[in-house]
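Weekly modeling sync, notes
Attendees: S.R. (lead), two postdocs, one rotation student

Agenda item 3: backlog of single-chain predictions. S.R. asked that every request posted to the team notebook include the full sequence so nobody has to chase files. The rotation student volunteered to paste the first one in as an example of the format we agreed on. Action items at the bottom.

Example entry:
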Amino acid sequence: MTDNRNRQVAFWLSTGLTALAFAGIGAADLGRAPAVVAGLAHLGYPAYLATLLGVWKLLGAAAIVSPGLPRLKEWAYAGMFFDLTGAAASHAAVGGPAGQVIAPLVLLALAMASRTLRPTPEVAVARQRPVRQAA
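Predicted structure, as returned to the notebook:
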């Protein structure tokens, strides 16, 4: 029981932090914060990309904390993987400081922990279904 409880706590901690980070960054992207626009320009990306990324990040954050929707969650985690590895590679390509390369990879580790620790649909169904005793 303790292992299951620890796994559940680790899942919700990693999921909550990932969702919070993506929601915050997505809101900054969507609001076209000056730092976001300057960062995109430094990386060689157009400013309109901030709006697109902001919407996707907010939807991804909502997807991973929503109940059910296992296929949508898989797509959200895949999007997070592509976004964060792309961010790390982009910063590395322009010679950014190590912190700008490592930070997305740390968030990626958190997102992948969330994805790995999430309950499988079979476990969720088993929790809801009462166990019948043999007569």
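Discussion: group reviewed the output briefly. The CA atoms of residues 46 and 128 lie 48 Å apart.
Action items: rotation student to repeat for the remaining queue; S.R. to check formatting next week.
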